[in-house]
Structures
1.
Amino acid sequence: MKRLTIILNLAVSIMLFSACHKTGNLRISQPVVQVGSIITSDTLNGNVKGTLLSGKTYYFASNITVNGGDTLLMQAGTKLIALGNGLTYQTAPEIFVHGTFISLGTQANPNYITVSSAAQLHTQANAQNYTNVFQGWWGGIFCTPGAVTAEDPNPAGGDVIIKWTHLEFAGGPSGPDDNATVYSPVGSPRWTIYFGNITKNFILEDSWVFGSRDDAMRIAGGHVDIMRNTYELCGVAAGEACNIKSGSVGDVGYNMVIGAATNAFKISDAGSTGTQCNINCYNNTLVNCGFRQNSTSGHGGSIDFEKSAKGNAYNNMIVNCAIGLRVLSSADVANVHYNNQLFYGYNATLVKEFYAADGIGKVQAADIYSATEQQNNPMFYGFDVNAYNYTQYPAPVTADNQTPVIVMVGTSSFRPQATSPALGKASTTAASYNTVTTTGNYGANITAPGKDIGAYQNDGTGNQH
């Protein structure tokens, strides 16, 4: 397994503060991480490095950059607010990361990277008014090695480690500072996160991604750990929750994706890095995805393998998605393995696409599958799978994006009841790739494939949202 370079950096730059917990007469000190100097100003601009302190709120109204060799760290309970309106690239500030970026939120004390109007935007989304939600208020986080210079002819870049963090309302138009081969043409929507660093590590765990204008995330190379996250309102009329390209190898597990415009996970070797895209996609729950894409072709809705990519798809729950598992003939078909999916479709149109009609995927022996609609209800504790279903694909979308209703998590519970057909039906031979070193708080905490299909396990493990 690959060793996280950031661990060495932290070892020499960590400071320990007392955060004491009392157990009887024993007091146990917990470490609080600090990298470099504490950032004292509440407004960030230009080149930034150091530590953003727990309990503090910070702002940025113009682009900020973490240079190669530098680290920006957010302690638990930190807020980072983008100030802008997203109408132009000048008013949609972006975070450029050529070094290392770490956000160490916790379950009890999560971090936020969002906008000042977040509360109003959430209220609008809950009221089924999505116009402002999809504005793309800031530029997102752009993570690549720095430019080649005489002083640094081989820039190394750094790792990205994001845990228990809310990432919201990104997607503003790209500008001349963005890589023209990534966002083409200039002015096209940016993504909440772009990571393109084939030798480094991308870790996203237990976080929430909400309200992206296009792809929520695009991973174009790196060692990948995308684990136990929740994706909502990803893409206004196109875009994946996570679009994974050539050079990316790793695990995508226990994620809850609801209402993505196109696919939940698109897995493609496009980009030709020389390292084949190889993604292990397991125990995800995917609901009502694929109905806002602006293409009339069968372009996706849940998990999509294409363009010489390989990998696995096991133990996924695919509920009322426009298209189910899609394995195209252009994928590395001999090395795409899949089984133990649970499919549910409200109507015959959805049932016919459990395995994409334009693909070569076939029903597997351990799939929970029926050619009849409304069979194999996953029996969620708090969500009606027979509400908000579409019979038209792609679903009609009005100019103000008010229809169709975009299904959201809200107060729903997607944990399976004791009578769910998903319980005990997951693969017992599926395993994690573990391409990112498991190193506690500062590295990956990868949950191995579970015994129940879907992101939420009956024993309480899996997705914790």
2.
Amino acid sequence: MQVERRSRPDRVKAIAVNAGLGLLETAGREAAAAFLEDAGVPLPVIARVLSEPDRRRAEDLR
């Protein structure tokens, strides 16, 4: 069984994810995805945070 990690060790990416979630609300999914990709966030993480709000980490904007 795989243990799900609940904290993000990379603070820079954590900040990028929160900024991307803010962008999702103001500019839409495409703009948020492009921003996160440019920030170096891995594609599986981008897909999760933009498409599955129930699976976001507690520190992510909700």
